[in-house]
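Action item from last meeting closed. Structure (123 res):
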């Protein structure tokens, strides 16, 4: 069976950095687009960014576009979200998810989801 294994979350002070990892177990990410989402309790889940199977990146949140970066390492079968200059407003549960080939921008097209990683930004 396939699964996403997420890691890298935790507590960080404002201005700090974290790198979230999303590793595929039991299948390959080579032909999948991977999106990163975040959700705060009581609020709607929002897409942060997506990277296609060829490495094309689409950003969805202006508030993090200049601070967060997606990268993928197909040899490691892993996708990363690099988060810099973190603010308290970035506190959320972060999820990775996969769809086929390209980033569609459609929530319903994501078929596979990770378990989520808690990121807390606080002094």
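Sequence:
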């Amino acid at each position: 069976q396939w699964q996403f294994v997420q890691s890298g979350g935790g507590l960080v002070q404002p201005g700090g950095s974290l790198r979230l990892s999303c590793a595929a177990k039991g299948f390959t990410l080579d032909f999948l687009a991977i999106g990163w989402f975040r959700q705060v309790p009581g609020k709607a889940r929002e897409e942060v960014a997506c990277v296609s199977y060829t490495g094309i990146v689409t950003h969805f949140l202006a508030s993090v576009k200049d601070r967060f970066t997606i990268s993928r390492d197909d040899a490691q079968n892993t996708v990363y979200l690099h988060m810099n200059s973190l603010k308290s407003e970035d506190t959320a549960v972060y999820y990775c998810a996969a769809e086929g080939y390209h980033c569609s921008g459609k929530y319903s097209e994501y078929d596979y989801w990770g378990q989520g990683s808690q990121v807390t930004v606080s002094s």
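Note appended to the action item: The chain has a mean pLDDT of 95.
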